[in-house]
Amino acid sequence: MNENFSRISRLIKSKIDDTIDKISIMSAPYSYSYIFKYIIIGDMGVGKSCLLHQFTEKKFMASCPHTIGVEFGTRIIEVDKQKIKLQIWDTAGQERFRAVTRSYYRGAAGCLMVYDITRRSTYNHLSSWLTDTKNLTNPSTVIFLIGNKSDLESTREVTYEEAKKFADENGLMFAETSAMTGQNVEEAFLETARKIYQSVQDGRLDLNSAESGVQQKQPQRQGRTSLTDDTQTNKDNCSC
Amino acid sequence: MFGAFGKQETPKEMEEILNDTITPQELEKFEKVYMKELKDKKCVTAKTQFEYAWCLVRSKYGADINNGVKIFEGLCKDDPDNKRDHIYYLAIAYTRMKDYTTAQKYVQAFLEIEPNNMQVMLLDEHIEKELNKEFKKDAAIAGGALLVLGGLLGVGFALAKKYHDKKKPDEEVRKNEPAN
Hints:
The complex is a heterodimer of chains A (240) and B (180).
Chain A: H1 2-26, E1 34-42, H2 48-57, E2 70-79, E3 82-91, H3 95-101, E4 110-116, H4 120-124, H5 126-136, E5 142-148, H6 160-169, E6 173-176, H7 185-201, E7 214-216, H8 230-239
Parallel strand pairs in A: 1-3, 1-4, 4-5, 5-6
Antiparallel strand pairs in A: 1-7, 2-3
Chain B: H1 10-19, H2 24-41, H3 46-57, H4 62-78, H5 83-96, H6 100-113, H7 118-167, H8 170-176
Helix pairs in contact in B: 1-7, 2-3, 3-4, 4-5, 5-6, 6-7
């Protein structure tokens, strides 16, 4: 009786595994090992949605209305031959949204903090954005400071050196970008991912915690890839 | 029509937004502020109403979403300056409750004010897709019913024909054959 039961359950398990295999073959080009959660924050009109759009679609949106609440975008990138899916939450910059958008900070692995190099006020507000980020994310969250609209050199109000100094003092990564020309946009998103991935490799990020903003797609079956950690495999063995 | 977004990607992006739910703790935080203002001043500021309603719309419970809808409907009248935001969240709320017909009305109202808004166009596309799915489901059920009916009629005709043919002399049957 018991033997029959285990035989049936083994049969069912193998059928399920076959199906999973078929599905994973079908979706192979879209498969990835990790998911990183990003947020994009900063004052209204600094170009957050345009940066996201430039990164996910490689296009510049010339007329971009104010974001309502949040927008979302994804792209799969590669770091150290690992496919990583970036899930990016782009928050509205208008003050009236700020209280609620704070609930999106939780569990972000990367935070892109954006100001506009042609509007000094957006730079002056950075300390308030930084306080929010430090309070609402975890210590390992990678913060990348972005000075956007670098194509508008003639109307610049914040120098590169000044912002670089601010970034260094606060331990932030930094680059000036242009969502219009695409300059440095790719780099900002990818550098952030590299830094997060480094934290994962060093064991500084707890993958089991929802707070870390990193999910590892872990194959459930034994011996499928080297990514499966040993304890998981052993557990699988015991249950059969 | 769908601007620069890839057609294949769009529904997934929208689904993420629609599936995103607020934690009960977060919701409670905004509820407390709302209730406190209601108790102390008998009237709640538009900002507090908006924040609470937005959180309600992100709840996983239908009753909360419904309450959010009521607040947003009130805000459309009381806070007309930010009407576009309220209409957007009404559309989101009805979409989350799977009332796609009402959701579509709000989307259309929004697009009349701002015809090229990407966020709303994505939502519109999502609603359109869901309505199509519903239509196909209904059509499939109706089609299935017709098939069954057709099948029954066919069997009926065949039986009747068989009965009828049996009565006819053999020659007449042969004459009919080429026509079949």
